[in-house]
Amino acid sequence: MAIKIFYPTIASALGSNHHSLPETAPASIVNFITGWAIAGGGGTGASANEYSYMAANVERAVGTFTSVVEPSGIPKNSAGDCFRSELLNGTFAAGNWDIVIYMIAITAQGAGQGVLRLRFFKGSDPTGTNAVEFRTTFETTAFGNNSTQEASTATVSVSQVEFKNEYLFVQVGYRIAAPANTANQDAHLRQTSLGKITTTEFSPTQSMSYSGADLSGTVNVTQPTDSRVTPGPVYLELEEANSIPPALVIPQTGFSITPGPVILEHGNGFEVSPIIDSDLEASYSAKETVWTLGQYLI
Question: Between 292 and 57, whose confidence is greater?
């Protein structure tokens, strides 16, 4: 197990209008086009505690700030209001996530201040249309509208959350903390390797194929922290199986359980109890059906 670090970048997340959230630090420091105008040319700005959601590759006009609390709803792919990771398989432990995002004024600086408002979602659709919120809205520390970069940070508690071939979405909005005092003030995101989201420990889930007389599909395996576990257990989830196969064969992929046990969970929550025959064999009996694992090197 290890923590994950995600980096907000200017790149587009494949298959969506959202910005990318890779696990590789960006090599360059770049100002985003993405940002907000918080005062117009005449100096009239948004009022304190007005909100505007993020739109990828757009500087949102001062007129987009309203009393409607943002961000809201599911991820807006039409706007690109999120940073999105690649697909994840595994479980994040409960605990604190640390967020550092850098901001900068490009056109004009001034005394205005803002905070970012973030929400965490997960979902299997790259656009976020089926995304489910797993961390409600929180705010980062206030930042000034300065021509030098400034970090806006937060440390938030996140419950244990499992990803099953799903993306992480970080939805972003902006709240005016203090109104602008000069014309053309703006606030933009800034790409830097110092800007990052650091998670709790992540336990990856391996995916492997299985075969049986009745069906074939995918077994997701929660990988042990050590390459050789003596004894187990190891948990195998058969998520896509509609019926229990009479035989199950797990191919060798790198580490062994000596002697077990291995706990199998059917997609409907069905569990079977193992009987260990030898170091590399186990029989599983349930509802008069026997599953046999030979050479169960996982």
Answer: 57
> What count of other Cβ atoms lies within 10 Å of the Cβ of residue 138?
18
This prediction has a pTM of 0.73
Claim to verify: residue 149 and residue 50 sit in the same structural domain = yes
Tokens linked to 216:
């074939």
Q: What distance in Å separates the CA atoms of residue 165 and residue 85, rounded to the nearest whole number?
A: 11
* CA distances in angstroms from 93 to 43, 121, 154, 161, 167, listed in the order given: 47, 16, 18, 7, 17
CB within 8 Å of 14: residues ≥ 6 apart: 20, 126
The pLDDT of residue 45: 85
Domain with 132 in it: 2-202
What are the pLDDT digits (tens) for 144-195?
989 999 999 999 999 999 998 899 999 999 999 999 888 899 999 999 999 9
87 and 156 share a domain? yes
Give CA torsion, residues 203, 206, 211, 217, to 10 deg: 90
DSSP 8-state class, residue 128: -
**Does 45 lie in the same domain as 104?**
yes
Domain's final residue, options 172, 202, 232: 202
Secondary structure of 138-159 as H, E, C letters: EECCCEEECCCCEEEEEEEEEC
CA pair distance 244, 214, nearest whole angstrom: 8
Q: What is the DSSP letter of 65?
A: -
Say if residue 62's pLDDT is above 80.
Answer: yes
Q: How many domains does the structure of the chain reveal?
A: 2
- Among 154, 183, 202, the domain boundary falls at 202
Task: Looking at the structure, tell me whether residues 168 and 259 fall in a common domain.
Answer: no
- Using CA atoms, how far apart are residues 241 and 66, in angstroms rounded to an integer? 49
The reply to whether 164 and 229 lie within a common domain is no
Residue type, 188: H
